[in-house]
Amino acid sequence: WYAGQVRDLTRPCPPGVEASDHPGRIVCQRPFRPERLPAPLRRLGWTDAEPPRDSILGLSDEEIAGIAAGWLVTSRPVTLRAGRLRTSIPRGTLLSPADSFAAAILRSTLGERPIHFMPGSSHVETLGLGDHVVRHGLTWRIDEDPGREPGRVVRVPGADAAPMLGGAIDLPATDTLLEEVFVRRGRLLDADAPWVDHANTTVPLQYVFAHYAAAAAHTRLGDAAAARRHARRGAWWEDVITPG
Q1: pLDDT tens for residues 134-162?
Q2: CA–CA separation, 56 vs 108, rounded Å?
Q3: What CA–CA distance (Å, rounded) separates 128 from 80?
Q4: Residue 68 has what DSSP assignment?
Q5: Model pLDDT, residue 88
Q6: Most buried residue, 43, 82, 142, 208, by most Cβ within 10 Å?
Q7: Residues 6+ apart with CB under 8 A from 53
Q8: What global pTM score does this model have?
Q9: Strand 153-155 with 116-117, pairing
């Protein structure tokens, strides 16, 4: 759902999307159109329109069919190598077809394309990606080396107790996305109109977690005003789900 909302805002980007345990995946590649990029993202430097060299999934039809056919259990520790990223998958880990496809996408395209997962995605834990997660607005971006941009990427205090916050956050990008791109409109502004689709309350919850993660990061940096601003907006989104 997130990729659908930002399809005209990003470079070609394979989102990590789960549909229960079904092997089918939404693989969404959208053309990058600099002329349609919102001004806030242009100010962040999103100008690179060089297309990737190949597909996000370097598998034949036969290989795809084989992976989709069933689950597997690792008989020994497995190292996932994707670009400069190295993670360890313990012996005895149960891998769904979707996990295997996610690993294949990481191996074939990390470093050429940004790869994002929805916060809380089980793939992150299963594939040992936790130390490489950086919150980027409403998603978790997989970063080969999260420590290389200390001015942008901030560790999120309290993430161990609240994993949905994510362990680190690209704070300038998240501030811009939450304050200038993903803004509240229409019926959401009506205090007497609660969120009507209880089956999809996870959608506004993503905004709650994003704002609280930003608030925690700003608190760590000593910016109390920015922390209060994000905390207020996080609470506002909570009220959308449970008014009053």
Answers
A1: 999 999 999 988 777 777 899 888 777 67
A2: 6
A3: 9
A4: H
A5: 94
A6: 142
A7: 112
A8: 0.76
A9: unpaired
The conformational region for residue 95 under phi > 0 = left, psi -120 to 50 = alpha, else beta, is beta
Give the residue carrying structure tokens 């704002």.
211
**Cα-flanking dihedrals φ and ψ of residue 86, to 5°?**
-135, 125
State the pairing for strand pair 94-95/72-73: antiparallel
Helix (H, G, I), strand (E, B) or coil at 39: helix
Q: Which H or E run includes 98? A: helix 97-109
The DSSP call for residue 177 is I
Answer yes or no: are the C-beta atoms of 183 and 176 closer than 8 Å. no
Q: Is residue 17 within 8 Å of residue 99, measured between CB atoms?
A: no
Q: Is 103 helix (H, G, I), strand (E, B) or coil?
A: helix
User: Please, are residues 23 and 95 in contact by the beta-carbon 8 Å criterion?
Assistant: no
Amino acid identity at 75: S
State which H helix or E strand residue 116 sits in: strand 116-117
* The token pair that represents 196 in the structure block: 């009507």
Rg (C-alpha) for the chain, rounded Å, is 19
